[in-house]
Specification:
Elements (H helix, E strand, L loop, with lengths): L2 H4 L2 E4 L8 H12 L4 E5 L1 H9 L8 E5 L10 H7 L4 H10 L5 E4 L3 H12 L9 E5 L8 E3 L9 H17 L7 E6 L9 H10 L5 E7 L10 E3 L2 H26 L3 H9 L1 H11 L7 E4 L5 E3 L6 H17 L2 H8 L2 H14 L14
Length: 361
């Protein structure tokens, strides 16, 4: 048993639209699978929910937190003024080494703020980001940033790429992650000053950089890591969520339209169920914070018990990987890569190199 496995996952019992009932139910389900959990929130409220779940004998602790961050609270102010809020207490448990990581379905801005205020940024990281795991035809691509940083500079995108590449290898088990920058075309001339500068640096990085990824290729499985600014990333993410919802409703409508269609639906029920599970956000288990000095996850505000159960599993996997030091070292390369790319451009060499090639001495 590793040290991380010996520690519980801290779960914000008060975060999300269906808290505390669904959160506690999900934590109990995870505990039944052998994961240790510490539920954080007003103790009386949490224990009342636990009493409804037949949780006796399970590896579940309760840690009292007297305050709750509301969805409409200002993230930074909530962290400063509500010192005993459940999100902050979760992060403090991680900071003190009493939990291997944390997860919350609450105010996402407050979770990010809590990660930065309590855990702090990894050395050399300019801005932590949010990684969203995408459902794809093959694999589980990472999209970063998914909303934490609306305005970015090239160093942010380069650091996102380098950090996410380590996460994909160490946590998700991708042998050699294929990295790309989200843009409006495949050609190197496309994009903006931001994407072109980040791409020029990543061509020199010791990663498998594949150039630009168009929006239509986010879910094909052709890339394992796709980086962008938080504004674009969040719009892309919400667009995909909305599209999936509409397609699901159209399929249901079509299968109910005629008796023959209904019969076809019954025959295809198992296959359709498998497809639904593949694109179900509840199966993904939340979005990791990348660039903070510890393990923190944000999960959907509408999370139910299944989403929380899977989130606990994902947090534990990230903690077991012990990838924090390597993520910090990777991020530390960004400034030198940008300087090397700028020097190449100034010298007129325009040396493209093969994807993933290191700069020549």
């Amino acid at each position: 048993m590793t040290e991380a496995r010996a520690l519980p996952v801290a779960v914000d019992a008060m975060g999300g639209d269906h808290a505390p009932a669904a959160i506690v139910q999900g934590a109990v389900a995870a505990a039944r699978q052998g994961f240790r959990v510490v539920l954080v929130g007003p103790e009386e409220v949490v224990r009342r929910e636990l009493s409804r779940c037949d949780a006796g004998g399970l590896p579940i602790e309760v840690r009292h937190a007297s305050e709750v961050v509301a969805m409409d609270d200002h993230p930074g102010q909530a962290m400063r003024r509500k010192k005993d809020n459940s999100i902050r207490v979760c992060f403090e448990l991680v900071k003190r080494g009493e939990a291997c990581g944390m997860v919350s379905a609450g105010n996402s801005g407050a979770v990010m703020a809590g990660g930065v205020f309590v855990l702090g940024r990894l050395e050399g990281v300019e801005r932590p980001g949010i990684m969203s795991v995408l459902p794809a035809l093959t694999g589980r691509p990472l999209l970063v940033d998914a909303g934490a940083n609306v305005e970015c500079r090239p160093i942010h995108l380069v650091q996102f790429a380098l950090m996410a590449e380590v996460y994909a290898r160490r946590v998700l088990g991708v042998a050699r992650p294929r990295v790309a920058v989200l843009a409006n075309g495949e050609e190197a001339s496309k994009g903006t000053d931001l994407t072109r500068a980040a791409s020029a640096a990543l061509r020199l990085a010791p990663v498998d950089f594949r150039g630009y990824c168009e929006g239509r290729d986010l879910l094909t499985g052709d890339f394992d890591v796709v980086v962008t600014d938080g504004f674009t990333g969040n719009v892309a993410l919400k667009t995909m969520e909305g599209t999936a919802k509409v397609i699901g409703e159209l399929i249901k409508g079509a299968l109910r339209s005629t008796p023959v269609a209904m019969l076809g639906g019954l025959l295809a029920k198992r296959a359709l169920g498998a497809m639904k599970r593949k694109v179900d956000w509840r199966e993904i288990g939340g979005a990791p914070l990348i660039g903070v000095d510890g393990v923190g996850f944000i999960t959907h505000g509408s999370s139910d018990a299944l989403a929380i159960q899977n989130a606990v599993r994902r947090v534990q996997a990230a903690a077991d990987a012990h990838a924090t030091d390597e993520i910090a070292r990777a991020a530390g390369q960004a400034e030198a890569l940008l300087a090397a790319a700028a020097a190449q451009a100034a010298g007129g060499t325009h040396q493209q190199g093969r994807p993933g090639a290191a700069p020549e001495a």
